[in-house]
């Protein structure tokens, strides 16, 4: 069932999209009158977005109320009714969390827009929000279900609301820092070098340890369950550990898809060459040589091709497994590959979902998001290759950018502290300890460390300008890892896994 | 810089001191600790470490195991790193404190060179035509009242100086934030030294006076409680789709057999008593208290009787029915026997003749009638499940310190980043009104106020900025 709130979020999404397009037109044509319209669209989008969140809050409250009344066997009234209605905030799974985070970014951006009237901040803010909303729309788990006991706490409201605003503020600060770096004359070549390397790294990440040049790329199978809900297919089976105990492992079921991997490999290769070319250009002191740009453009084109083939595989596909035998042989081959378990006959396993299994847009949502993000960033760099001067001229003053990044961080840091403290208090009530070195907790501490370092460097040792901006941009990468990386299972498990059902 | 008196071993002290206050130490510690933290999130820790055995090569596993890599956050060397960071923190705070403190306590009600040196805004305005000192002062006071609030007045010679001072406390914010970290670390040390964590299962209706303490490195130790805990009731509610809605236990604390406290606990709402915390963490079916119901059928007549009993008890026929043909006792329960579902083993002891034992399956009611030659056959029809509530029992004397430290830190951060020590001096003497103003941070926030005040002095107009 699609909730009405989701339609509102979609309307907001198109507002932001239109705003981004207008900003691009503004930079390309130097018509600054367009900016007002773009800001207007951002405001419109945020209003609809806010409305969507309120509607979602009510929808969730009603689901909760219905479940409660069904379980209790009678209708609730008065205060009890309100308590249940308000107990389910609109940010309790990864989908809602991303939508709420995007909202936080927009609100913080708009406050700054009105206070400082800084042009072009909106371009970045809207673009990143688009990405967050786009990613959220790919998530399979959008259902509103009654909260499990562990989440039934008012601390949930506090903790997650703080997280959205705090992380949103860090994102906005990073945007200012990035703009500062551009304005500060960090050359096109250096940015190209950095972006090429980041692209190569992220493509390697998408390849997940498979040798990238092999061109292998697999996508997770999905299937529809009895309620018509699409979910990822995974197999659970027992693995013998070295000490003789038996452990349960669960593995997502994947199938190799054609073309995508090869195109990603080519793209990564082109970016690697681009990085080398940019580096050599720097050595020779040629800031404006074109070799790097051409290679970078080639990488971008391949990337677009990889994305297109991804979409083709995920929509038309042709990958369809309709027999149980095929699925069990797939599981057995997994067990053999991953855990060296050859004895297929004795393998005890359970597979989620039911035939037919297919590859869909919801198969590898994060890879898709990463590809889209890379393509957006790469397109921006290609765009800059031709419009560098006019873009940099349109950016606000250096001093203002540096100072605003700092002020936003001053707001975000106490927020981050509050996220950790409210989390600790909640953990104390829920799990009987305020700190347990859960990966999410640990990463939040790492984030806190990075920004504590930023503040000390800045306040005590006067690191303003470029070094501060670099820490701020790196800091945001750490924030994103804390926010998403931990939930994507990149770390060793933990209690904050809301990505999986 | 170190402020040490000259003592013979002053070189060494200076050296140690400058080591602990050095930026290089802070940066190194930041990076090393961050690296360890990161590593710990990728290498499975604690209970998860078993997985590492299946994935890592034996050499790598042994190496990581030997340096405590599967429990990094509790190794001596990680603790040492944190302590070093603490020392660094203390040293830096102590190093700066005299200056911070001086700024906090030194009050400068008069305009002197230092004030002029720090002033961000100054204005030197003439009296209005023919105004007396008193009239000018009255005018300044009125303007000041509208813009700045109450002042302290100091007179030196013929000059009267109004001095406004607000947000002075924010000068202490930075040391407060740093000291709050020490509080938190102190709490953490107490937690790890004196904290205890364990669990106990309490069947409904019974009480316990101990819990199972979890030992570092696995295993548990039975530990006595200074009081008893009784579980009066355990409720496990589910939503219609089968997902858990609520786990709730009604607990009573007993001191020497007397009830002292009864309260409900549920997930997110623990009970604290006598320094111990009781959390609702799990539950398990309590087979020994489970009531099984069954049906007896006399083959010849088809007459049916129902009965019920707990494990180990003789089955009694329900309400006034004639006695059964033999003594039946439930001797074993298996929630899933041979994957055929719940099953009970019943012993039959007739008044005369041989004792017999047989299984009954809840899912296969006809099983007994088919398999056993007997005048009376049984059906296992179900029963009421009984539970034992699973309580997490912990004691953590460090918690108050950690939370107090957190509160201080939050207040301190707020004061440090959003408050500012703002001062304005207005000296009225000899035909001139001299204004100086300063703000320790965020001058842009104070600027409108100062400008508004000066504007009012100039024009006699303009309200609150």
Please tag this protein with its features.
heterodimer; A: 501 residues; alpha+beta; five-stranded antiparallel beta sheet; three-stranded antiparallel beta sheet; 14 helices; 8 strands; 67% helix; globular; disordered C terminus; B: 465 residues; TATA-Binding Protein; eight-stranded antiparallel beta sheet; 11 helices; 34% strand; elongated; disordered N terminus
Structure description:
The complex is a heterodimer of chains A (501) and B (465). By secondary structure, chain A is of the alpha+beta class. Among the domains of chain A are: 147 residues, no CATH class; 106 residues. In chain A, the strands form two sheets. In chain A, strands 1, 2, 5, 6 and 8 form a five-stranded antiparallel beta sheet that branches. The longest helix of chain A has 39 residues. Chain A is globular. Chain A starts with a helix and ends in a 16-residue tail after the last helix. Chain B has 465 residues and is an alpha+beta fold. Chain B folds into four domains: 96 residues; 98 residues, TATA-Binding Protein (2-Layer Sandwich); 95 residues, no CATH class; 95 residues, no CATH class. Helix content of chain B is 35%, strand content 34%. Chain B has eleven helices and 20 strands. In chain B, the strands form four sheets. In chain B, strands 8-7-6-5-4-18-10-9 form an eight-stranded antiparallel beta sheet. In chain B, strands 1-20-19-3-2 form a five-stranded antiparallel beta sheet. In chain B, a hairpin with a 5-residue loop joins strand 6 and strand 7. In chain B, helix 5 runs antiparallel to helix 8 and helix 8 packs antiparallel against helix 10. The longest helix of chain B has 30 residues. Chain B is elongated. The N terminus of chain B is likely disordered. Classes of the chains: A alpha+beta (501), B alpha+beta (465). At the A-B interface, helix 2, helix 12 and helix 13 of A face helix 2, helix 3, strand 7, strand 10 and helix 10 of B.
